[in-house]
Design brief:
The chain is an alpha/beta fold. The protein is built from 13 helices and 8 strands. Strand 4, helix 9 and strand 5 form a beta-alpha-beta unit. Helix 9 packs across helix 11 and helix 10 packs across helix 13. The longest helix has 23 residues. It is globular. The mean pLDDT is about 90.
Length: about 375
């Protein structure tokens, strides 16, 4: 009886271990990262917790104080810190495309993500022989999908050096390194010549800019006359009420947990595009019906949350993951709750699409 019990116990433990490592920790080929490889970007292990505290204290300040800091270089520095803290966790738990997409009946989240990215390529008519810039490319998930779909040469720019290394590694593994190029830089001051690109896109990236006109002006500069630019923007909708405490809490939670100096209102986007010289071709919210809910992936059950929480806690206790990972994971969980609330109430959308064209002749 004792031998039989021991064998059953061993079988159960073995099955649990297999489940843990295959389904919980995920396959690196699919998710890009395993939980045992969480590094927190280029931050040294002994500095992760301090960097997290510095980040959180900055973005938990009143919006007026953050806006004042936006006049200097603090926001880009903290955006860089944010992506050092979250990039590995994003890859582990979400994938290589750091954005949302409408859910599609009968399609997996991965397929819906790819189609959402390919739509951007189609909107700017990207094709072989063209050079297209990805403004805020992350680890390059959209870049690879767009390069494969369109045949265009895509140049991505990200402020985070760790993401550059990750994107280049993914590009090589996908066999797209000859069509996908990644550089480290600030999209507010892109190191590209005037009129050097045939098209441009940004997928949920320009929300990090303190002033939208600054990044739009840079995109306008590097585009050739007649070229198209599409952006999926994070914005508050017309349903948002500044006098509703629940609305304010939701939006502030989204901003603080995503390194955003301040969300813009939906109606402001087109006006900014025209202000810098673009012609607005199309301007609409891709999250509106008949699109499926984009926030369904965020509806993580409490069991799933505690499973992941226990995993990162165990890895931290074993010193496999650095101190601070648990706090970052908790921050992202709370941010997911605010994002879900924003989607369900309709006061926030991460996919307000604006399609612009640089005029063939620009006024002096």
């Amino acid at each position: 009886m004792e031998l039989s019990t021991a064998m059953w116990t061993a079988a159960v433990v073995g099955a649990a271990v297999i489940y843990w490592f295959v389904w919980v920790m995920g396959a690196a080929e699919v998710k890009g990262k395993r939980a045992v490889n969480l590094k927190m970007g280029s931050i040294t292990r002994d500095k992760v917790q301090d960097k997290y505290k510095q980040y959180w204290s900055f973005f938990r300040r009143p919006k007026e104080d953050i806006a004042a800091a936006s006049d200097g270089d603090k926001v880009p520095v903290f955006v860089d810190t944010f992506y050092n803290l979250v990039t590995d966790i994003y890859e582990w738990g979400w994938g290589q495309s750091f954005h949302f997409s409408p859910s599609l009946p009968g399609r997996s989240h991965r397929e819906a993500t790819r189609l959402h990215e390919e739509r951007a390529a189609d909107l700017i008519a990207a094709r072989p022989g063209q050079r297209v810039v990805d403004v805020g490319c992350g680890v390059g998930g959209p870049m690879r999908a767009i390069a494969a779909h369109s045949g265009a040469h895509v140049v991505g720019i990200t402020i985070n050096e760790y993401q550059v290394a990750r994107a280049r590694a993914h590009n090589r593994k996908a066999g797209l390194h000859d069509r996908c190029e990644v550089i480290c830089g600030n999209f507010l001051e892109m190191p590209f010549a005037d009129a050097s690109f045939d098209g441009a896109y940004s997928i949920e990236a320009t929300c990090h800019a303190p002033r939208l006109e600054d990044v739009y002006r840079e995109v306008f500069r590097v585009l050739k006359p007649g070229a198209l630019y599409v952006s999926y923007e994070w914005v508050t909708t017309a349903l948002y009420r500044e006098d509703d405490p629940r609305h304010v809490e939701t939006i502030r939670g989204i901003e603080a947990g995503n390194a955003l100096p301040g969300l813009r209102a939906q109606h402001e986007v087109a006006a900014v595009a025209r202000q810098v010289g673009f012609e607005v071709v199309e301007d609409r919210d891709l999250a509106l019906l008949p699109a499926g809910s984009w926030w369904t992936r965020l509806k993580m059950g409490r069991i799933a949350y505690w499973r992941n929480h226990l995993l990162v806690s165990a890895l931290t206790a074993l010193r496999v993951a650095p101190k601070g990972v648990v706090e970052v994971h908790e921050m992202l969980y709370e941010t997911a709750r605010h994002l879900s609330d924003g989607g369900e109430t309709g006061i926030f959308t991460p996919m307000h699409m604006i399609l612009c064209r640089k005029p063939l002749v620009t006024p002096n």
